[in-house]
Design a protein that fits this description.
9 helices, 252 residues, alpha/beta, Rossmann fold, 6 strands, six-stranded mixed beta sheet
Length: 252
């Protein structure tokens, strides 16, 4: 007998203040811009038009994703839904690059090196020192994490390694119950999840650029992998936003 698997939607947060400034953000906690809030509202409108009644929401511990979820749920008139927040859905930790201007980093380290740090699957940027403000040990949100879990820098491979246990252990059981799930998170935590769901190769995931504030709707098979997936919204506008992400460092 086939299972009634719930629907899954993922959405990257709307434009943040540091997206706008073209800075490496990572685990720095920044707010949405006015444009980002508008993107979150549009995401909510697009989801409302699909007539999806969600049962459970998941997000990270970072305000840009939380704000996006709130705004989208408000637009759908579903703000009462249960929301679970977890660090495993946080953005990739960009190590010593956090706070740096992306184009300035290219000038400093070279286009090829920044491209490797930014887009390769398994090579992380230089790590932060243990006494750096960017090492999250002193942040109350992460007080329960072990030293082994606290990142100093991450590759996309590292992000996938922390996302998957949460996906398999917490989110999949909800979907298996037939519950519709909405995940609001970040460019890299969602790219990592997409790699898993859509069986994207290590080579091809490098070229995937996830636009801000655009929901992606999945129909999952019995293995909780993608049977079909599509972005919601205007295709030309989505393509434009994806290209903008691709060219944030100029050429890199």
């Amino acid at each position: 007998m086939s299972r009634n698997i719930g629907q899954l939607v993922i959405v990257r947060h709307g434009e943040s203040e540091w997206n706008k400034k073209n800075l490496f953000t990572g685990w720095r906690d920044v707010r949405l811009t006015e444009q980002g809030m508008a993107e979150a509202r549009e995401a909510g409108r697009l989801l409302a038009a699909e007539n999806i009644l969600f049962d459970q929401c998941f997000t990270s511990l970072q305000r840009r994703a939380i704000q996006t979820l709130w705004i989208a749920l408000d637009e759908m008139d579903q703000m009462w839904l249960p929301v679970e927040k977890n660090w495993r859905l946080n953005e990739r930790h960009y190590g010593a690059l956090q706070g740096d201007d992306k184009k300035e980093a290219v000038k400093k380290f070279g286009e090829e090196q920044v491209l490797i740090w930014r887009r390769s699957y398994a090579t992380p940027p230089p790590p932060v020192d243990l006494n750096s403000p960017d090492y999250p040990k002193a942040d109350r949100r992460y007080a329960g994490l072990t030293d082994a879990e606290l990142p100093r820098s991450e590759s996309l491979k590292d992000v996938l390694a922390r996302v998957l246990p949460y996906w398999n252990g917490t989110i999949v059981p909800k979907l298996a119950e037939g519950k519709n799930v909405l995940i609001a998170a970040h460019g890299n935590s969602l790219r990592a999840l997409m790699k898993h769901l859509e069986n994207i190769s290590e080579q091809d995931i490098v070229e995937l650029n996830l636009p801000t504030g655009v929901p992606r709707l999945y129909k999952l098979n019995g293995d909780f992998k993608s049977e079909s997936a599509r972005f919601l919204g205007d295709a030309a506008e989505i393509e434009k936003k994806m290209n903008a992400v691709k060219h944030q460092t100029g050429k890199a």
